[in-house]
Amino acid sequence: RETGEKITWSVSQSLDFPGRYRRLKTLGRNNYEQAQLEYENSVLAYLSDTRGAVFELIALRKRIVVTEERMEHIKQMEEGYRKMLDEGEVTIIDYNKIRLEAAGMKNTLHEYRSREDELLVFLDMVSGNNSSLLDHSAYPLFEEPVADRLLEEKKAMHPAFRIPGKEIEIADSRLDVVRTKSLPGLQLGFASEIVAASQFTGPTLGISIPLWENKGRIDAEKAKKNHYEAEYSKLMLIYENEFRALYARYLSVRTAMNELQDAYRESASEDLLIKALEAGGISLIEYFTELAAFYNIEDRIIGLEKEYYTLLSELYDHFPGLNIPQN
Q: Which helix (H) or strand (E) holds 7?
């Protein structure tokens, strides 16, 4: 080489301020916990669909049972009126009214059976062909909910309530990480320099001091954190109002169901109607009109019972194990 020629080479590694790595670890943990909460929330939504199908199936099977009982009753009436028709005691019009009622019930039962098959296919699909492990005959048991206590439990346990708070923690962690970029950085390395007859080879140490280039990012992360804090208060109020509306609906349905059940027990009697019909106190049309009213109340009770347990399960949806009845 020529005299005065300079040859250099170096290898270096930049290192951030030590506290940055601890803050990055905290941010990573918060991001992981946020993903877990979002997954748990999606699982609860999935269980809600499954629970709705199970509850519909329970109510549907109750309707099937009462419809089969009604068909047995109408069958006996049809046989009796057929004999009376042959003996000239009733008209063909009366007999045909009973046959029409029977045909209507048979069609209703067919629709119920078709829907039952659809629900079983859905439950088999979502349970991996293990729908037999689910109890389709009875609703799950719940303790009587106490609104304020239940709300506090949901705030502590339900992912929907916890996600907004975790977003604030993530924003705070990001702000901490960005702030560390304003701290001095270290640079360690190994270098060699050769000039003419002189040579230097050995370790190198450097330090970098940021000045203003990180200020914009810090301001942006502060703004994000302030946004999440403002959203948190708004979301907590929305969720609490939704819970209280759900609880009020539950109380309303419970009252309506209990009152209807009491009224049905006190007034609904097919035996009295049959006696009145046989004694000539009411016509066949009046008999079926009254019977339809009784059946309508029965159907409404089954519907209210389903809604009652659906509302209860939604109130307790942060305890998913209570929501799906199992054998």
A: strand 6-15
Confirm if 287 and 293 have CB atoms less than 8 A apart.
no
DSSP code of residue 146 = -
Q: Which helix (H) or strand (E) holds 188?
A: strand 185-195
Q: Collapse the DSSP code of 326 into the 3-class scheme (helix H, G, I; strand E, B; otherwise coil) and give the result.
A: strand
Give alpha helix (H) positions in the chain.
18-86, 92-126, 147-157, 159-180, 215-267, 270-278, 284-315
Mean pLDDT of all residues belonging to the chain: 82
Question: Distance from CA of residue 191 to its chain's centroid?
Answer: 62
> Over the stretch 244-297, which tens digit does the pLDDT of each residue have?
999 999 999 999 999 999 888 877 666 677 777 777 777 777 877 777 888 888
**Residues sharing a CB contact under 8 Å with residue 266, sequence separation 6 or more, in sequence order:** none
Residue count (the chain): 327
- Residue 76 C-beta-side C-alpha neighbours within 13 Å: 6
**C-alpha triplet 316, 322, 324: angle, nearest 5°:** 110
CA 95 to centroid of chain Cα atoms: 50
